[in-house]
Amino acid sequence: MSDSINAFRAAREPRELEELADRLRLIARSADDNERIDIAKALLERLPGDYVQDDDDVLDAVCGALTEIGVMDCLGNLRFRFRPIQELSDQLASHIQEIQYLLPRRHFGK
Questions:
Q1: pLDDT reported for residue 110
Q2: Which helix (H) or strand (E) holds 74?
Q3: Are 60 and 33 spatial neighbours (Cβ–Cβ below 8 Å)?
Q4: Which helix (H) or strand (E) holds 37?
Q5: What is the pTM of this model?
Q6: What SS3 state is found at 81?
Q7: Distance (Å, rounded) from C-alpha 38 to C-alpha 5?
């Protein structure tokens, strides 16, 4: 699993990011809580990047994986929203609070 996370963090091409985000989504389904947190942190760190924000397929893959983990909700048609912070684990809530100034505003709120 850590190889997939490291590959995702290092990816520099949109298709590669999309494929690796999809792979992390599948891995998350059978991962334990600590592994899911590690996956979520990697996804969150890449979410604000141009490769993700400028490509709908990559955005869908990254946010879809975060939805699988329970960090986001899918509102349909490439619309994703962060779940309320109080519904997340302490570790994920803290991480989001630390980097929230980097995260796209459109994914917060109603």
A1: 65
A2: strand 72-76
A3: no
A4: helix 33-46
A5: 0.94
A6: strand
A7: 8
Which amino acid appears at position 58 of this protein? V
Instruction: Identify the segments of the chain with pLDDT beneath 70.
Output: 110
Q: Are 42 and 28 in contact (CB under 8 A)?
A: no
Residue 72: phi, psi to the nearest 5?
-130, 165
Q: For position 46, what pLDDT does the model report?
A: 97
DSSP three-state, residue 25: helix
What is the spatial distance between Cα 52 and Cα 36, in angstroms, rounded to a whole number? 20
Residue 56 corresponds to which tokens in the numbers above? 């709908």
How many other C-beta atoms can be found within 10 angstroms of the C-beta atom of residue 41?
17
How far, in Å, CA of 65 to CA of 21, rounded? 7
Closest by Cα among 89, 93, 68, 92 to 80: 68
pLDDT of residue 15: 96
